[in-house]
Specification:
The protein is of the alpha+beta class and about 70 residues long. The chain is built from 3 helices and 2 strands.
Length: about 70
Amino acid sequence: MLDFHRLTESPTHAALPAISINCGFTAAGLPVGMQIIGPQHADAAVLAAPAAFESITDYTGRRPPIA
């Protein structure tokens, strides 16, 4: 279970704002995520970064095929 949390638990314990968004797809059509972590009290900047990324990509509307 620790492997599942190894990339997300540290920012949480440090009280850092973080977000994870879809940033693309593999050649097999699987989604790839991007985690953005900011300094303390930079919540607005952390939310603005993926909003800007999503505004120039079409990944938010795409879904991987159901096998």
